[in-house]
Amino acid sequence: DGGITQSPKYLFRKEGQNVTLSCEQNLNHDAMYWYRQDPGQGLRLIYYSQIVNDFQKGDIAEGYSVSREKKESFPLTVTSAQKNPTAFYLCASRRGRSGEGYTFGSGTRLTVV
Amino acid sequence: AQKITQTQPGMFVQEKEAVTLDCTYDTSDPSYGLFWYKQPSSGEMIFLIYQGSYDQQNATEGRYSLNFQKARKSANLVISASQLGDSAMYFCAMREGGWDDKIIFGKGTRLHILP
Predict the structure, then answer these.
(1) Is A35 at the interface with chain B, CB within 8 A?
(2) Hey, is B85 helix, strand or coil?
(3) Residues 6+ apart with CB under 8 A from B76
(4) With contact defined as beta carbons under 8 Å apart, do A55 and A32 qualify?
(5) What distance in Å separates the CA atoms of residue A12 and residue A82, rounded to the nearest whole number?
(6) Of B43, B48, B25, B42, whose CA–CA distance to B96 is shortest?
(7) Which percentage of chain A shows pLDDT scores above 70?
(8) A49 with A108: CB under 8 angstroms?
(9) Tens digit of pLDDT for each residue in B23-70?
(10) Of residues A42, A90, A101, nearest to B106 (C-beta)
(11) How confident is the model at residue A42 (pLDDT cuts 50, 70, 90)?
C-alpha cells in the first residue's frame, strides 16, 4: 500500500546536536511538506517542496533545513540553531493542485534534553 | 493576522448527538480550498472533507458535512450521530490559490464524545 513513512517515531537528542528526521513517500506525489505541532498551536509550516531540487520556507523555517534530491524523500534537519526543537513533527505530501487533502505520515516526536 | 480561526478549544457532546465545529477563514483570493482533518490521540492526521471556493453545494462525506457560508467566510464541520470514536482533535485548514501551494491550519478543537 502507498503511503508516507516517517522515522523514527520517537527521537531523543542532546541539546546542541543536529538531528535529521526522515520522510519517504511512495505515492508519486509531487509536493511534500513539513509541519511542526506544539500543544495548543495547531500545525505550523516549516518547509515545503513542490518539485525535486526546489523548496520554499514556511512560516517557521529558522533553525531548520531540508533537501529534495529525490521525489520520494524530503528529510528535515533540526539544527542546533533551533531554540526550542522539542515538538511533534509531521510530514505530508500531495499529488498536485486538486481538491485532495494532504496525506500525512504518522509523525516523529522529537525530545531534546 | 490569523487566516484560520477555530474559536472552540474544547467541546463535550453526548454520544449520538450531532455536533458542529466552527471555523472561519480570511482570504482575499477568490480561489481557495477548505479542509477538515481529524487527529486521534495516536497523532496521525486523517483527511475528512474538502470544499472548493467555487463549489455550489456543501461537501458531504458520510457522517461529515461542511456548512460552507462563503459570504460569512465560514466553513463549519457538522458530524451527525456522533460516536465515541469521534473523540479527537479537529483541524480546519485552507489552501489559497496562486503559485504557493501550501495549506495553513487553525489551532484545532478538541472534541470529547460522552457515553
Answers:
(1) yes
(2) helix
(3) B20, B21, B22, B23, B66, B67, B69
(4) no
(5) 15
(6) B25
(7) 94
(8) no
(9) 999 998 888 999 999 999 988 899 999 999 999 899 999 999 999 999
(10) A42
(11) confident
Terminus-to-terminus CA distance in chain B, angstroms?
Answer: 38
Cell 472561519 belongs to which residue? B24
Q: Name the minimum distance, in Å, from the CA of B50 to any CA of chain A.
A: 6
Buried b (16+ CB within 10 A) or exposed e, B54-75: eeeeebeeeebbbbbeeeeebb
Whole-angstrom distance, CA of residue A90 vs CA of residue A94: 14
Mean pLDDT of A20-34: 94
Residue matched to cell numbers 505530508 = A92
Residue among B74, B82, B80, B28 at smallest CA distance from B51:
B74
Residue whose C-alpha cell is 463535550? B12
Residues 6+ apart with CB under 8 A from A77: A18, A19, A20, A21, A64, A65, A66
Give the phi and the psi of residue A10 in degrees, each rounded to 5: -125, 140
Cβ contact B107–A103 (<8 Å): no
Give the strand pairing for A87-94 and A103-104.
Answer: antiparallel
Instruction: Flag if B103 and A33 touch (Cβ within 8 Å).
Output: yes
Mean pLDDT, chain B, whole residue set:
92
A9, HSE (Cβ side, Cα atoms, 13 Å): 4
Q: What is the DSSP string of B38-77?
A: EE-TT---EEEEEEETT-SS--EETTEEEEEETTTTEEEE
Would you say A50 and B95 are in contact if contact means Cβ atoms under 8 Å apart?
no
